[in-house]
Design brief:
The structure holds two protein chains of two kinds. By secondary structure, chain A is an alpha+beta fold. Helix content of chain A is about 40%, strand content about 20%. Chain A is built from five helices and four strands, in the order αββααααββ. By secondary structure, chain B is mainly α. Chain B has two domains: about 130 residues, no CATH class; about 140 residues, no CATH class. Helices cover about 70% and strands about 0% of the residues of chain B. Chain B is globular and about 55 Å long. The chains are: A alpha+beta, B mainly alpha.
């Protein structure tokens, strides 16, 4: 049973716990115009999340931030993908979607939560928090240059 | 005949030994979670959820289970306490199946919370979620369940190989360098002068070596297919299963060490018995 469902899930590229799809880094990487780096500044000091933090901590510092950015910019990528995959069957799900979608209120509450989580991580009381998104590119192969910057959170 | 059986199946003492090893690793990982600020009470009632396309996550959110636990501080503390307490108790009482069942239920909800509020369905906690299930079984059933985990490990790496194979990413000459550039950009931007950064920059200037690493990883994943047909290669696959997470760490800044919890499933019952005997001797000496 487990094997059959896992194979079906893999064939469809559709993951339902515990029938996992192991396709990480299997898609061809497209050379981007630029890469994004988050610059987190706490009380006017830059937080170097890339060192001195365990992988799981870094994951919680960056992944929700990236999700928040995409929600703010272009809505929930989850529902776009869901609509594409389900087609007309999506209408069946619509009445239940409220329970697993992010309301505009929860999106607006994100900067406050992020500040609290950063306080938990750093052990520091945060008076001001700034998150900038740096669009960078590789200048030759030895250094990274910043092309543009925009502010994501100013709390 | 008996000798043959003993080489094929685990005796109860070996199962207990494996159970203790697994839960010591799980307990250490829970302590790491504490230092990583990813225990439930440390998440500060997260607001953005990401159930993605997984109906199990939808159901959990429909029932408001993740919301209820993360938004209630005493409940979040209690959840973490039960995770630690059950993992610790299992090390001392590995034969108590109800303790293992409690741990699995509580860890399953933790897994949902971690992935949905982490806004990415990472596979890193899967070994900690699935391995304890084998210890719910006794005697011969345990051997079958343990073998099931072995096949799960074989499948995970074989599937990773097939996905790359089918999508032809292994033929794309810039795959290695682009994975590294995407994942290491923050580290190299903020820390360009460390020794590790110099190693990365050296590799970035030798992209063919990065591609070689990527393709080597791809081939090593493919070797796990052999395990479906014979156990003769299991010692080799065991070593590869320990090496691959290091490759993921170097190329993608994702250590994925949790997968090594499945690695002992590639060791034969006789090797496990020898290891248990060695550990017993060490303990006896200390006494």
């Amino acid at each position: 049973m487990f094997t059959v469902f896992t194979l079906i899930g893999n064939a469809a590229g559709f993951e339902i716990t515990p029938f996992y799809v192991w396709g990480m880094y299997s898609e061809r990487e497209i050379k981007p115009v630029s890469y994004q780096i988050y610059k987190v500044t706490i009380n006017d000091k830059r937080l170097d999340y890339s060192t001195g933090h365990f992988a799981a901590n870094r994951f919680f510092l960056l992944s929700p931030l990236s999700y928040y950015e995409s929600l703010k910019e272009s809505g929930d990528p989850m529902f776009t993908s869901l609509k594409e995959r389900l087609g007309k069957k999506y209408n069946f799900l619509e009445p239940y979607i409220f329970s697993f979608e992010n309301s505009s209120q929860s999106i607006n509450e994100f900067p406050v939560w992020y500040k609290k989580y950063l306080e938990q991580t750093t052990g520091e009381k945060i008076q001001n928090l700034k998150v900038d998104v740096l669009n960078v590119s590789w200048h030759t192969n030895d250094s990274i240059t910043v092309n543009s910057v925009y502010n994501l959170i100013n709390e | 005949m008996n000798n043959k059986l003993s080489q094929k199946d685990f005796i109860d003492a070996d199962a207990v030994f494996l159970c203790r090893i697994v839960f010591v690793v799980i307990l250490i990982d829970l302590i790491f979670s504490g230092f990583s600020n990813t225990l439930i009470h440390q998440l500060q009632s997260p607001v953005l959820k990401f159930p993605y396309l997984d109906p199990v996550f939808w159901l959990m959110h429909f029932l408001h289970i993740p919301e209820l636990i993360t938004s209630n501080k005493p409940l979040a503390w209690l959840w973490d306490f039960i995770l630690f307490a059950s993992a610790t108790a299992i090390i001392f009482f590995p034969r108590k199946k109800w303790l293992i069942a409690i741990f699995i239920v509580f860890y399953f909800i933790y897994y949902i919370i971690f992935n949905t509020y982490g806004a990415h369905h990472t596979h890193s906690l899967i070994p900690f979620l699935l391995t304890p299930i084998a210890f719910l079984f006794s005697k011969k059933s345990f051997s079958f369940a343990w073998q099931g985990l072995r096949y799960f490990l074989l499948f995970s790496y074989s599937a990773a190989f097939f996905w790359k194979f089918i999508r032809l990413s292994w033929l794309y000459s810039e795959q290695g360098i682009l994975i590294l550039k995407k994942n290491l950009a923050p580290y190299l931007y903020f820390n360009p002068n460390t020794f590790l950064a110099s190693v990365y920059f050296w590799f970035i200037n030798h992209p063919s070596l990065l591609q070689l690493l990527y393709v080597t990883g791809f081939v090593l994943e493919g070797l796990f297919i052999i395990g479906f047909f014979t156990k003769k290669w299991d010692p080799v696959l065991f070593i590869i299963s320990l090496i691959l997470p290091l490759g993921f760490w170097f190329m993608a800044d994702a250590l994925f060490y949790e997968m090594t919890l499945f690695s002992p499933t590639l060791l034969s019952p006789s090797v496990i018995a020898k290891l248990r005997a060695m550990v017993s001797i060490q303990f006896d000496k200390q006494k």
